[in-house]
Specification:
Layout: E1 4-8, E2 23-27, H1 32-41, E3 46-49, H2 53-60, E4 68-74, E5 77-78, H3 93-96, E6 100-104, H4 108-114, E7 120-124, H5 129-136, E8 141-146, H6 155-171, E9 177-178, H7 180-192, H8 195-198, H9 206-213, H10 217-224, H11 228-234, E10 244-247, E11 252-255
Parallel strand pairs: 1-8, 1-9, 2-7, 2-8, 3-6, 4-6
Antiparallel strand pairs: 4-5, 7-10, 10-11
The chain binds D-malate.
D-malate binds near residues 73 and 105.
């Protein structure tokens, strides 16, 4: 059977059961999956995605206070009683080094829960895109799942999905059967920048990518709330050389080994 490469622009476009047997890649560029990359790079031991605020608070009771950090957002802003919001650069070594982060966000952590039946779940952002692609090159069934924003497709996620599809083709040796959303996402990526930049032949500068991300539905609320710096933080392509992986049994995200 031909390898398959599918993109789902929103979680609801695929049933959790259909992800069984595939490697799922969850994307929420603004901001959950970007924040997860920053947190792991800052030395967090692991991130536990929690669906609801109450789930995070209940789980927190199983740890001593100095082992954990509570982070996340509702309507974009930090949650009452949580130490951190959802801005990537808040997750600094002094705040999260050696800790377990209990993270709950409106759309991103929900998309991770949606992906839980997949054989393997990677968590992707622009800041770790190439490292995630490197993990995907020998996978025969890949499902890229965009979180969207409040049930609407968000262009920032689709742009990254398109970049991943393009790199998987360019760097991998397999010929994939793609769904229509994979083809569309790749076209969207290739048409958003000058071709040498989209193909990675010339550098795509963070300012330029951030300008595109600002046009997305997911960016509007962030800009209105004064979180424009987070968009620039999300646009640092390949800032980190590691791929976050969600263990579907323990439901913890760590840097992928091997
Ligand atoms: C989410 O998971 O909904 C987002 O990351 C939204 C945000 O960061 O405000």
């Amino acid at each position: 059977m031909k390898p398959t490469l599918s993109v789902y622009a929103l979680p609801r476009y695929v049933e959790p059961e259909e992800l069984a047997g595939t490697t799922a890649v969850v994307i929420d560029v603004l901001r959950a999956t970007t924040t997860i990359a920053y947190a792991l790079e800052a030395g967090a031991d692991e991130i536990i995605p929690c669906l609801e605020v109450s789930d995070a608070l209940t789980l927190a009771e199983q740890f001593s206070a100095d082992e954990i950090v509570l982070g996340g957002e509702r309507e974009g802003v930090a949650i009452d009683g949580f130490q951190l919001g959802n801005s990537p650069e808040e997750y600094s070594p002094d705040r999260v080094g050696g800790k377990t982060v209990l993270l709950t966000t409106t759309n991103g952590t929900r998309a991770m829960v949606h992906a839980r039946r997949a054989d393997e779940v990677l968590v992707a952002a622009f800041v770790d895109a190439s490292a995630v692609v490197a993990k995907l090159l020998d996978r025969e069934k890949i499902s890229i799942l965009c979180a969207g924003t409040d049930g609407r497709i968000s262009e920032d996620d689709v742009l990254l999905a398109g970049m991943l599809v393009d790199q998987i083709h360019r760097r991998g040796g397999m010929v994939y059967q793609q769904n229509a959303q994979a083809i569309t996402a790749r076209e969207f990526w290739l048409n958003s920048f000058a071709l040498p930049q989209a193909l990675g032949v010339e550098p795509l500068h963070a300012d330029h990518l951030a300008d595109e991300l600002r046009k997305s539905f997911g960016a509007r609320n962030l800009i209105a709330l004064g979180f424009d710096d987070d968009i620039l933080a999300a646009a640092q392509i390949d800032r980190f050389d590691m791929a976050p992986r969600l263990d579907t049994t323990t439901f913890r995200i760590r840097k992928a080994e091997g």
